[in-house]
Please model this.
Amino acid sequence: MILMKTPDWTAIRQDFPVLNQEVHGRPLVYFDNAATSQKPRPVIDALVRYYERDNANVHRGIHELSNRATSAFEAARERAARFINARSSREIIFTRGTTEGLNLVAQAWGGEHIRAGEKILLTEMEHHSNLVPWQLLAHRVNAELEFIPVTGDDGLLDRQKIDQLLTEDIKLLGVGHISNSLGTINPIRELCARARELGITTVIDAAQSAGHVPIDVQEIGCDFLAFSGHKMCGPTGIGILYGREEKLDATPPWQGGGEMISSVQYRDAKWNTLPHKFEAGTPDISGAIGLHAAMDYLDSIGRREIFEHDAELTAYAWERLGEIAGIRRFGPLRDRGALVSFLLPEVHAHDVVTMADQYGVALRGGHHCCQPLMRRLGVAATARASFYFYNTLEEVDQMADALAEISHFFNRAL
Amino acid sequence: MLLRKSPTFSTVHFEELYQDIILDHSRRPRNYGELPDADATVNGNNPMCGDDVTVQVKFDAADRQKIAKAAFTGNGCSICMASASMLTLKVKNRTRAEAGALAEKFQNLVTGASELSPEDESLGDLQVLIGVRKFPQRVKCATLPWHALEEALEK
Model:
């Protein structure tokens, strides 16, 4: 029997200094975690320690500090490989974040392998960062974009259309693991398995999932997977692109500069080995070290435990929001990530967010970088509450009570 | 539905912004709709939030310096919709120069660049939108239709 230790969520919350404050005279309720997460003390300390003791440039230095910085930077890469169960740290490329990772795949892999008339299949719920890079590529090489439709407010991919669209005609499939606007957890294992049978290259946008659920790239069976450090307790400016080794080997360098070369002549150069081939210039060393601390921190709690805690908050929020007459909630009832998008009756999302802020509740309102999806759902914008493991049921109550008042205030008789 | 405690707005400072008159204009925007044979049509949008407003102006047939009518269409938050609605009422029968001066004055007031003197009543209902200056992220919502108007006045 495996003994599951329940994390001490109250103690864990104390690790986040920023949460202990009032905003507009109310306790801060930070529900904008899908945009960026807060940072725990161990991550902040790792950054301070690095800059106070070890700061130097990596890889080519001979001196002690450069050795320390290089060891710490490469240790972060090893840690990232374990975090997502990559076969080797050669498959781990440091990037600025998910967006850069996806652009790298589109421009370098796509630029080499996708030709005129070939098809790229995405879903209607992709974030702009897993849409616009493919548009740029498609326009450049004259490729075509296809989309798996979303069924409606319940935010599910249309199963029947998947079978129709996912055929040998497709060269590449790009899917978000968890939708940042709907919360949908997409069936990426199933999609990647089907794609693999057909010889289709797969790219997963894991921005909303990497810090929330266990990720095993071998089990998922994807070719590429990108995520950001800052949405999973790490610093901004650092992210990971995982690429299956043979895919990375078949990808030409993306940016040129120091670090990505093995030898340079005036008119030609030879590329460095993986993963350095894709890391031109001085990387975000402190970012990688902070991300290492964040991965350790998340796994000290347990990603399964985090997922279950998030799910409890999300289910409770869904239910409490449902008490507001006329509210429209988006996304599926089951299998959803830690967020709820909604619209209060007759209140624009920006008015909701401005008013909620006055209650100390930090929400986000807008198109969530999913303009085509918003048009598809027939809305200009939604308000979104997104949760993380340091949030509490009491905070959900504070939000729900505030939103009930806001709805009442806005729908008052004039 | 669970009925909770009645609203306690006293500690929350948005009543100042969301006054009845703003809600009224956003619920029932005036001069909303396409203006047939408009002389100028200018779209303004804020990609950050999705507010999207098209302002249309028709000049007087005899006196091309004078605005005969203004109208708008679009989609946005209550601040943006109310601002556009009030704009169409306010600039009607004004000269280009007067409307331009009003646009400049209004924008200076909502951005906090200038103050309204207590005896100045020239803004009328528009005055309620000055409250938006306390919400820096929302200032653009109020100024968006006025930017569009300024561009329309050039045509």
